[in-house]
Design brief:
Length: 175
Amino acid sequence: MDSADKATLDREFSDFYREHLRNVYNYTYYRTGNHHDAEDLTTQTFIQAYRHFDRACKESNGRPLRPWLIRIAHNLAANYYRDRSRKPATMLDDAEVLVATHDTEQLVEGREDAKRVLEAVRALPDDRREAMIMRFALGMDNREIARTLGRTEGATKVLIHRAIKQLEKTMEEEG
């Protein structure tokens, strides 16, 4: 690859990075529940993506690369959990809620609600949790989620439906 091609590829990757940074960070944050770990995983995701960006562009045949990128983040997060399971860790100390003007009681209730929901999402089976994060945190459509998870669109729709039902049941049981 000559320097002109490299400069073009670097420019394209910079645009790709700016376009998808928020999605990758949000995904990794929902997976880890911790801003520092999410930042580390986001950085690792883009480093790995950069290494394979030229090939991915050539092989994509014009399809969006977001599912490919989220798949990288997914694999890194899975490694994170595997490594983390070997070491004790605290659960979800870092859950935050976007706050407008609230009184203290509303703020505390809102944080507790958000923490309960995130814990319930985290308790879902891996495939359901992944689909929920991709759908609701990243706004991915069923086709993108299907490509990312290596499933059909129909199977993805069923997976999301079951995840929602399981989440609703868990939240009802907790009151």
